[in-house]
Design brief:
The chain is α+β, with helices and mostly antiparallel strands. Helix content is about 30%, strand content about 25%. InterPro entries: DUF2889.
Length: about 160
């Protein structure tokens, strides 16, 4: 996975998945698949702005076990207009969950969201206070938030104190 800024100021966030096996096996639609030949070979690109708004999505399934699988890729355009942030995973499930999507492409979106934050936050050099309490490193009462966002750490400490009273 990788992210980079384009000449137009938007960011492309890309991921690729390749699934191979060490033993030969059969698929219903493709027939025999040799060791090392991809069972799944797919990639996904999100084009986002600095506010994490998705402007475009391109999904491609070059290798799949079934002939029908690549048809799901077009549905990922339904993500255009979403913002990566709180509620993103739920919104993704609503638009491309179940039979509207592809499990492998859909699951890549969580990692692509992380790469988007790392790419864009890294450009600004400050990260985002919106990441507070999203993982152990970003705990409101932890050393990272205290060092990078002292106001957020103070607010969290005050809220904890009020709750304890």
């Amino acid at each position: 996975m990788r992210g980079y800024q384009r000449e137009d100021g938007l960011y492309d966030i890309e991921g690729q998945l390749t699934d191979t096996k060490t033993e030969p096996f059969e698929t219903m639609d493709r027939g025999p698949v040799a060791p090392g030949e991809p069972l799944h070979g797919m990639w996904l690109r999100l084009t986002v702005d600095e506010a994490m708004l998705i402007h475009d999505v391109e999904a491609v399934s070059d290798h799949t076990p079934y002939a029908v699988c690549p048809a799901a890729a077009a549905n990922f355009k339904r993500l255009v207009g979403l913002r990566i942030g709180p509620g993103f995973t739920r919104a993704v499930r609503e638009r491309v969950g179940g039979t509207a999507g592809c499990t492998h492409l859909r699951e890549m979106l969580g990692q692509l969201a992380t790469v988007a934050y790392q790419t864009i936050g890294g450009r600004s050099g400050s990260g985002s206070p919106g990441l507070v309490d999203t993982c152990l490193a970003w705990a409101a009462d932890g050393p990272v938030v205290r060092a990078r966002f002292p106001e957020a750490a103070k607010a969290a400490a005050a809220a904890t104190k009020r709750a304890a009273e």
